[in-house]
Write a structure and sequence with these properties.
The complex is a heterodimer of chains A (279) and B (140). Chain A is mainly alpha-helical and 279 residues long. Chain A has 13 helices and no strands. Chain B has one domain. Helices cover 88% and strands 0% of the residues of chain B. Chain B contains five helices and no strands. The chains are: A mainly alpha (279), B mainly alpha (140).
Chain lengths: 279, 140
């Protein structure tokens, strides 16, 4: 019965997300950005690409998902909670004979399902267009591309899910709708553009100095999802000469950081949603 | 008192009490102080090892942090614009304000002046803090 209720809520959430005009506007902008990203890749590579460059271009979708998909993740996480708080439908839902965890499970399933569909579609469009443009040169390593596609997709997907859950948690905790959205965006900007730069992490390294400084600096840098992803790329995530499992073997700590963050944030979302007196 | 000045004063006091605005200001202050502390080591190292003819106080010390503080300040300016209008629409206080014997142009000019004044003060505060912290710690 509980599973059935969860699926009913997930279905209702999914239809709410799809029918929301703001989400649709952001989706259109996202698809436009992804298409312009593909055209940009095509423009930059007018001359003949070697196999290594072409292999890297084949995984350009992961950068598109990480750059533009995160905004969709933040929007979805915000809308599932705040929109219902604003319309007072969440209070109605909570007064029904339903467990609170059924409601949050339904919301999480709907959000994750929607993002999975969207990013799956993005990858399909990107790879299809790349095959149309570079099919002749890329056919001999296509199996290798398909071989590491699920792992890179998994990492990019978890990256977006981290920000979606963060936005969902902020929307549960913060009562004011506009503040919740702005605070989610601020956290994204801080984590992706400020904390890992010279202005913060680099300066902390210079303040502490020596071995302690460099150790703390590297621990801190490795804890940020953006840097964890960049480090994996630096170690050859998109490099055809490197075996994907040897890359994961080197960067196993960076790789497990993503599921760890997702689990921690899901638990925090549960706790904050279950323990709130009124939402 | 001119109604525009009343709105300016109200906007200024409203926005300075916003938790999100306080959080961003705290982040900016922390970034400025950390930059000042780091310049003790960084600028001495740059003075000793780089002979590019640039004034490292400006080219490294200030530009190092002002780029990111300018990003945060532009985010802050966008946020206070949203908070001022959106929050008043949600709470309904803008409706009350518009029913008062005030011209709409006075309301919008008051809001604009209040927010601009606030942003001016914050920008000056952060730049002064950046410069002072580098001067104190670097002793230049």
């Amino acid at each position: 019965m509980s599973v059935n209720n969860t699926l009913i809520i997930a279905q209702k959430e999914l239809s709410d997300i799809v029918n929301n005009k703001w989400v649709l506007i952001v989706l259109i902008i996202y698809l436009f950005m992804v298409l312009s990203f593909i055209l940009d890749v095509n423009d930059q590579s007018t001359k003949e690409l070697n196999d290594e460059q072409l292999f890297s271009v084949m995984f350009g979708w992961s950068q598109a998902i990480i750059s533009y998909g995160t905004i969709i993740g933040i929007m979805i996480g915000f809308f599932t909670i705040s929109n219902e708080k604003y319309n007072k439908t969440l209070n109605t839902l909570l007064s029904k004979p339903l467990y609170r965890d059924t409601i949050i499970n339904g919301k999480l399933i709907a959000c994750i399902g929607f993002l999975l569909l969207l990013f799956g579609l993005t990858v399909a469009i990107y790879i299809s267009l790349m095959l149309i443009l570079y099919g002749n040169s890329a056919y001999h390593f296509l199996i290798m591309v398909l071989d590491r596609l699920p792992i890179i997709f998994f990492i990019s997907f978890l990256y977006v899910i981290i920000y979606m859950l963060l936005s969902m948690m902020v929307s549960i905790i913060v009562r004011r709708q506009s503040v919740a959205l702005l605070f989610s965006i601020l956290l994204y900007v801080l984590m992706s553009s400020i904390l890992a730069t010279m202005s913060f992490a680099g300066n902390i390294y210079h303040i502490l100095g020596g071995q302690i400084g460099s150790r703390i600096y590297y621990y801190f840098i490795n804890l940020l999802p953006d840097c964890a992803y960049q480090l994996m790329v630096m170690h050859g995530l998109n490099d055809p000469s490197r075996n994907i499992f040897s890359v994961l073997n080197i960067c196993w700590a960076n790789f497990f950081l993503f599921p760890l963050y997702v689990i921690v944030l899901i638990v925090l979302c549960y706790i904050s949603f279950l323990r709130r007196d009124s939402v | 008192m001119n109604p525009i000045f009343i709105i300016v004063k109200q906007q200024f006091s409203d926005i300075i009490r916003e938790p999100l605005v306080i959080f961003i200001i705290l982040v900016l202050v922390v970034l400025s102080i950390i930059n000042g502390l780091a310049s003790t080591d960084l600028l001495h190292y740059a003075d000793e090892s780089l002979s590019d003819g640039n004034d490292h106080f400006l080219s490294i010390g200030l530009s190092n942090t002002l780029y990111h503080t300018s990003i945060l300040l532009s985010i802050l300016s966008m946020f206070i614009g949203i908070l001022t209008v959106a929050e008043e629409r949600i709470s309904g206080s803008i409706g009350v304000l518009l029913t008062k014997p005030l011209y709409r142009r006075d309301v919008i000019s008051g809001k604009f002046a209040g927010l601009s004044l606030f942003l001016f003060f914050i920008t000056v505060l952060i730049v002064v803090l950046c410069v002072c912290s580098i001067m104190v710690f670097y002793r230049a």
